[in-house]
Amino acid sequence: MSAAKIKVLCVDDSALIRDLLSEIINDHDDMEVVAVAPDPLAARDLIKQHNPDVLTLDVEMPRMDGLDFLERLMRLRPMPVLMVSSLTQAGSEVTLRALELGAVDFLAKPALGIRSGMLDYAELIADKIRAAARSRPRQARRSDAPAPQALKAPLITSEKLLIIGASTGGTEAIRHVLEPLPANSPAILITQHMPGGFTRSFAERLDKLCRITVKEAQDGERVLPGHAYIAPGDQHLELARSGANYVARLNDGPPVNRHRPSVDVLFDSAAKHAGRNAIGVLLTGMGKDGAKGLVTMREAGAVTLAQDEASCVVFGMPREAIALGGASEVVSLDDIAPRLMALVAASGRAQRV
Q: Which fold has domain 6-134?
């Protein structure tokens, strides 16, 4: 008996996008578009009728804004939602808000040549739908919720580094880790799978929420405590040395594990240049990027954490790392930030003895 197909409902006011997504999805044996809708009001009845596994949702639509619909949907009937976003500054900000509201991931509309551009990413779209179907939808954090209490600042040296990798579900997981960190936490380097144009908005959004400074990494800049550096979309981020200092290096080398930026590239560089002075963290995400890199970091003497299955949106990358023996600890998302500060404090005590 064959496995049931993933049922997808596409909601978009563009007939072209609806047709393209239907063509791409129906071309895969394990998924099918069960219905399409031009706006959220039409989608409501179709959701009741077809009970889809995954919803693709445009943001700008007539009769009801996509974000308003998403917020209501995640409150009343949580389900896996993939946002269909434009590759613009405004599009990236709205998409990040959608991820905060509970969307699992997003598909980016190409700026030019929509048909050829969408078809070029057919396999990526299919992978995102598969990951969404396996995901655990999260309800949004209330906008009026108080910021988490700051963790106690450990005594640190500038040598200590936190190295974080994530993919699907990672934008909110990263916020969850960074927001409670004290202003003088160790320097942090982050690779989150995200296209160019989105990472700057992501960094700016986190910078407003966090006590540390969060920014998009620049090639050659010194890596400083109290700062988090996010890999720009479409560029690999690496840790390097310049004399006594750590610096960030960017390159546009070929994709690794189909990704640029790649978590493995960042983790491998941290293993090489920081060794036991680094702490590696692999968060939620589909695929296996970062799994081998976490092994390399652990072999170089780093403490390595993998997010546990129960708190992941998609337990892909952490599961692969755990299977390879790359994780010295498996930790719930809620416990990662406190654990990082405890490890840094313990390291500081050891250095002073």
A: Rossmann fold (3.40.50)
